[in-house]
Amino acid sequence: MSDLGIRVLAVADCRTDGQSRRLTDGLDQRNIPFMPGWTVARSHGRNCVEKVTLTSIDGTLQRDFEGGFHPIRIRLRV
Is 13 helix (H, G, I), strand (E, B) or coil? Predict the structure, then answer.
């Protein structure tokens, strides 16, 4: 997504290890924080995701990420 011009604030992965070196190297090259052992706890927004709350898998840490004043409003198919 970053290569398409979409700002990626972070990548969370609920696994604490075992990620592809290619993935982590690519994130490092793009200055995108990688958060192993974290997952999405909540999404915020009415018609689009404006903010997400991430939490560590043990529930002791929490962090919010916002898309800014004008979040990107696109539809993604997964």
Answer: strand
- In this prediction, the residues of the chain whose per-residue pLDDT falls under 70 are 68-78
Domains of the chain: 2-66 (3.50.50.60)
Specify the pLDDT at position 61: 96
User: Over the stretch 42-53, which tens digit does the pLDDT of each residue have?
Assistant: 999 887 788 899
SS3 content of the chain, % helix, strand, coil (to 5): 15, 30, 55
Q: What is the pLDDT of residue 76?
A: 55
**26: exposed, middle or buried (Cβ count in 10 Å: 0-12, 13-18, 19+):** middle
The first and second tokens of residue 41, run together, are: 């706890």
Q: What element of type H or E holds 66?
A: strand 62-66
HSE, CB side, 13 Å, CA atoms: give it for residue 35.
Answer: 20
